[in-house]
Structure to design on (270 residues):
């Protein structure tokens, strides 16, 4: 009697976790643009898969067919292996599905991988501007002001992007993109792994059950299914220079392997 019950429970859980889920996903995209153009800004090679993979994979499935671009503001050369890490980033983005002509790595003397240095917002804005304007970017995605891991390079990015957007707002000849930041959760839920995906799914299901209609201010949520999780793991493993023991623990327990929640970054936050 116990075995059939356990089998039924496992089958149910597998069916729950197999498919991806999302809520208010199109809030990240500019519906008036055809197609929407989304720029993901990261600080180091591996940020794209350690933190943002649920969103990248979900946007690739969107009915609005957005174009997705990736801009990494350093080669992660803190240990002198920047060239190697560039190649790893390319392999990771191949797995995540971002096309080769839509991804770039910046080398700037004032934007170097450094766990003790906050990057200058004006320098970041100067670097970002030609990419945003030339590619007609409609949405910019990056970290929030806590940077998920409190890395100063991470939390510099929304401040630099916000600086750029405020300067573009003063130009009548430029389309101003919206800026969204990935929500940093407290330490305990950050490492609850699969259970965080379950809780996030319950939140989405409850909103659907209550016929809740998302508003402009509703938090966009992306929840990976099992195939997405495995794709993310493959992308992480492409960064073989970074695969020390605690990275495997991260893959097993991090919420960001499964769930991304976004909020629009307002100018007054900076």
């Amino acid at each position: 009697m116990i075995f059939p019950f356990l089998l039924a429970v496992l089958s149910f859980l597998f069916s729950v976790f197999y498919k991806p889920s999302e809520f208010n996903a199109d809030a990240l995209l500019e519906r008036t643009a055809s197609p929407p153009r989304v720029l993901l800004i990261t600080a180091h090679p591996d940020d794209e898969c350690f933190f943002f993979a649920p969103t990248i994979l979900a946007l690739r499935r969107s009915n609005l067919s957005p174009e997705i671009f990736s801009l990494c503001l350093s080669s992660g050369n803190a240990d002198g292996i920047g060239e190697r890490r560039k190649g790893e980033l390319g392999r990771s983005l191949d797995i995540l599905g971002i096309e080769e002509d839509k991804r770039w790595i910046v080398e700037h003397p004032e934007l170097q991988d450094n766990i003790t240095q906050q990057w200058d917002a004006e320098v970041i804005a100067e670097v970002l501007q030609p990419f945003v304007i030339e590619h007609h970017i409609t949405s910019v995605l990056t970290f929030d002001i806590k940077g998920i891991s409190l890395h100063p390079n991470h939390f510099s990015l929304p401040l630099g992007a916000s600086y750029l957007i405020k300067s573009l707002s003063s130009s009548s000849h430029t389309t101003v993109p919206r800026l969204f930041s990935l929500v940093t959760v407290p330490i305990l839920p950050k490492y609850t792994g699969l259970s965080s995906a379950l809780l996030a799914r319950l939140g989405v299901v409850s909103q659907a059950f209550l016929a809740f209609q998302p508003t402009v201010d509703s938090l966009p949520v992306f929840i990976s299914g099992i195939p997405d999780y495995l794709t993310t793991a493959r992308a992480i493993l492409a960064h073989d220079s970074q695969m020390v023991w605690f990275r495997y623990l991260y893959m097993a327990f991090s919420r960001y392997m499964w769930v991304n929640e976004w909020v629009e970054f307002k100018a007054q936050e900076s």
In short: DSSP finds eleven helices and eight strands in the chain. The longest strand covers residues 37-42.
